[in-house]
Amino acid sequence: MSRTDRVGRVIAAPPAAVYGALLDRESLEAWLPPDGMRGRIERWDPRPGGGFRMVLTYLDPAEAPGKTSEATDVVDVGFAELVPLERVVQQAVFEADDPSYAGTMTMTWRLAAAGAGTEVTVTATDVPPGIGRADHEAGIASSLANLASYVETPD
Predict the structure, then answer these.
(1) Exposed/middle/buried for 57, CB within 10 Å: 0-12, 13-18, 19+?
(2) What angle is formed at CA 43 by the lines to CA 40 and CA 47, rounded to 5 degrees?
(3) Would you give the end-to-end CA distance of the chain in angstroms?
(4) Which of 36, 72, 124, 135 is the most exposed place for a label (fewest CB within 10 A)?
(5) Where is the Activator of Hsp90 ATPase homologue 1/2-like C-terminal domain (predicted)?
(6) Quick one: which of 68, 78, 74 has its CA closest to 55?
(7) The pLDDT of residue 10
(8) Could you give the CA distance from residue 56 to residue 64 in angstroms, rounded to a whole number?
(9) pLDDT at position 1, please?
């Protein structure tokens, strides 16, 4: 049975700013890696049917071994759907020898105006069984916190 993980957060920025950060290469490199990681995008094609390849490197590989190598997770992400100011649907495939990380995970980033901000809900479906639920949800929450810090403007 496939697993679904979901995390949400209200970000104090308009939907246009949040949507823009989801489709800008430099922005994604800055905010998408969760705490304890840094990211580098190797390929970038921001259109439906396009996508990107990101190398995530653990700052301390002893804390969490990587899926692709001892210190890295490499993920190929395709843009399945782009609906301006509403949602971005990604299909992610990890590069890993371990079959527990195999398969295509769908990540849906939904945006909804919430007062002066944006409610962002990330739903991951078909999560590979090798990815622990608590760790995955914590990683998504960390990325959302990074996104908020990246796009929010001080009062």
Answers:
(1) middle
(2) 120
(3) 45
(4) 135
(5) 12-152
(6) 74
(7) 98
(8) 12
(9) 54
Asked if 5 and 127 count as a contact pair (C-beta separation under 8 A), the reply is yes
- Using alpha carbons, select from 73, 54, 69 the residue that is nearest to residue 135: 73
pLDDT digits (tens, 9 = 90+) for 44-87: 999 999 999 999 998 887 776 778 887 889 999 999 999 999 99
Dihedral sign for Cα atoms in the order 105, 141, 139, 47 = positive
Decide if pLDDT at 88 tops 60: yes
Tell me the residue length of the chain: 155
Residue bearing tokens 């949507």:
19
Number of folded domains in the chain? Answer: 1
**E-strand spans in 46-104?**
51-58, 72-83, 87-95
**Average pLDDT for 21-40:** 96
Contact 96, 102 (CB under 8 A): yes
Among 5, 29, 35, 16, CA closest to 118: 16
Distance CA 33, CA 36 (A): 8
Domain that holds residue 84: 4-151
